[in-house]
């Protein structure tokens, strides 16, 4: 199939899904999300592929959901908000639901929706210097897939999500369990590929059913229901005006995204937007 926003590569038993909008730091709009979900399905069905690497082209893994596309989208009713957020939720959870192991190789920026994609993958390896963040509360929106409390201790999750921290470095992410390994940038792909080949060398049915059993454990504990309940709350949040959201959107429309981000970040103790 023709792909405009991602690349798919297969080398031996390892498939790669590569976000390919480097000019916008691989931000996700609807078309990119649809391509990703279709490609994941194809890789899951391909008998040659035993493991899937997820990575980004250019300077970043991904900056998250495309804010320019969001600004242009009709979100005037709760139904519009719900449809869009459910589309984003299904995109993120496709990485969790992929029957084959997924390894996220993150570098540069791994923000918001992309951060949730990395959490949804089975394993995450970060390049030194990677910056992580969930800044949604800083401009009045909510988390699409509330996976972080299932990945780290609750106090770490609350600190990150309630402050909207978007400057967490790779070493801190490793210390609290968001990533498995931190490696030099030039080692990111070779390291990830070696790990993928180790998984691919194991007994295929054992890997498949072990992943299924682990995911099922979390879902028996209520993870899926909790994520859906959180999504319901966030639909209401995203459809509810706030002074911060109105001002952010005004600045973005009149002065551009960089100015809106600068206004947002100047209000917090961690300094200016990069």
Give me a quick take on this structure.
With 274 residues, this protein is α/β, with parallel strands linked by helices. It is 51% helix and 14% strand. The protein has a six-stranded mixed beta sheet, sandwiched between helices.
Structural class: alpha/beta
Question: Strands across the major sheet, in which order?
Answer: 1-2-3-4-6-9
The total number of structural domains is 1
The ordered H/E elements are EEHEHHEEHEEHHEHEHHHHH
DSSP strand content? 5-15%
Return the average pLDDT rounded to an integer: 91
Helix content: 40-55%
Descriptive notes:
- With 274 residues, the chain is α/β, with parallel strands linked by helices.
- The protein has a single domain (6-202, 222-240), classed as 2-enoyl-CoA Hydratase, Chain A, domain 1.
- The protein is 51% helix and 14% strand.
- It is built from twelve helices and nine strands.
- It has a six-stranded mixed β-sheet, sandwiched between helices. A three-stranded mixed β-sheet has the order 5-7-8.
- A hairpin with a 2-residue loop joins strand 1 and strand 2.
- Helix 3 runs antiparallel to helix 10 (223-238) and helix 11 runs antiparallel to helix 12.
- It is globular.
- The N and C termini lie far apart (37 Å).
